[in-house]
Amino acid sequence: MTRVHTAVLIGRFQPFHNGHLALLEQALQVAQQVIVVLGSAHQARSPKNPWVWEERRKMIDDCLPTRVKGRVQFVPIRDYYDLPRWVAEVQRWVEALVPISGASIGLISHEKDASSVYLRHFPKWQVIELPRQGEVDATPLRDQFWNLDNQPAAQVQAALAAALPEPVLQILTAWRETPVYAAVREEAQALAAYREAWSCAAFAPVFVTVDTLVVCAQHVLLVQRGHSPGKGLLALPGGFVEQRDTIEESAQRELQEETGLTLTPDAWQAALQGVEIFDHPDRSLRGRTITHVYVLHLPGDTLPEVNGGDDAAAADWVPLKELWELEPQFFEDHFHILRTCFERFGGGPLPKLP
Predict the structure, then answer these.
(1) Do 215 and 331 fall into the same domain?
(2) Where is the Nudix hydrolase domain (predicted)?
(3) Mean pLDDT in each 10-residue stretch from start to end of the chain (354 residues)?
(4) How many domains does the chain have?
(5) Burial profile 154-171: b = 16 or more Cβ within 10 angstroms, e = fewer
(6) Contact criterion met (CB below 8 Å) for 77 and 91
(7) DSSP string spanning 77-116?
(8) Among residues 210, 177, 228, 200, which one has the least CA distance to residue 47?
(9) What are phi and psi of 17, to 5 degrees?
């Protein structure tokens, strides 16, 4: 088997299961150190990403014997919805943790489906092919964990116990008694009902939405979502395109309904910096959703009065300098939308990303 100085194991580990543990144990056999890349870091909790990266790190660390803990390091990587940029970030952070210049790096390859395509985009690193370890998958495990069919608790616990290392099972068992679990399970129920409503369609639906990014006086206008999915999370004001609206009319309508901010046609056109489309297939758990983001910059130093309405529980102007600290509180890819639009349109002097 190929031996390297550093082995890289990439995953979301939602949750860390027996198959992941077997891969990590094999990686430790072929490398002096293993760097575990924790994907989808800094995301708000959702049924797909219920555990923040610090919790996933603890799951993994608790499974490691004391003698090997010093050989495993962790790198949290956010979602960029841009594969080349994401690959570059993974390489940058991993290589910063390799103490010897030119040391060999191997990528643990364990392709299971289309979601593993990223494993083919690291030509600088050796590929260490390892067979899939068992038939455990995180997606059905999460479905069991949400228990939307209301199975007996003992049955759910037995199914999880067969697939999870004991330390992870203990963590999840305790977590299931928290209000956070209840909130994410409620979200899972709402999403299941949403998908069920469209299950009889002849073709998988593609949803068209709009969002508006409004900047004024070094602040950005955000709403707090009032309903699932994403209840309580921060988002750009927006919503679905209505049947008799143009896309731009829908953006104007949603902005007014959710924030109370009304702009005349002339004021809208004067403030408009551009329009960006965000269409990554995985950007929304509701299904294939394509959004059109209108970027506006309002003149002046006075913030217009806003109030949450319609689907928004609240609306407020947030200082640009505070945005990065709020990243884990954003709905779906809305933080990515902000970052991308500021890079492209220069809506204000945002602090440099860490």
Answers:
(1) yes
(2) 193-345
(3) 89 96 94 96 96 98 95 96 94 92 88 64 87 77 92 90 96 95 95 89 92 94 92 95 94 95 95 95 94 95 90 92 93 95 69 45
(4) 2
(5) eebbebbeebbbebbbeb
(6) no
(7) EE--S-HHHHHHHHHHHHHHT--STT--EEEEE---SGGG
(8) 228
(9) -115, -175
Q: Are residues 130 and 225 in the same domain?
A: no
- Asked if residue 229 and residue 117 are part of one domain, the reply reads no
- Domain end, chosen from 83, 103, 134, is at 134
Residues 74, 11 contacting (CB under 8 angstroms): no
Task: Using the 3D structure, point to which of 83, 109, 134 is the last residue of a domain.
Answer: 134
Q: What is the CATH number of the domain that holds 35?
A: 3.40.50.620
Residue of 195, 165, 216 whose CA lies nearest to 347: 216
227 and 107 co-located in one domain = no
Distances (CA, A) of 305 to 216, 221, 232, 257, 259: 12, 11, 21, 14, 9
Rounded to whole angstroms, the Cα distance separating 236 from 224 reads 9
- Assess if residue 72 is contained within a domain: yes
Q: Is residue 236 part of a domain?
A: yes
CA–CA gap between residue 161 and residue 60 (Å, rounded):
16
Q: Are 66 and 352 in contact (CB under 8 A)?
A: no
Length of the chain: 354
- Count CB neighbours of 128 within 10 A: 21
CATH number of the domain that residue 237 is part of? 3.90.79.10
- Alpha-carbon distance 212 to 249, whole Å? 11
Domain that holds residue 308: 206-345
Within 13 Å, how many C-alpha atoms sit on residue 61's CB side? 11
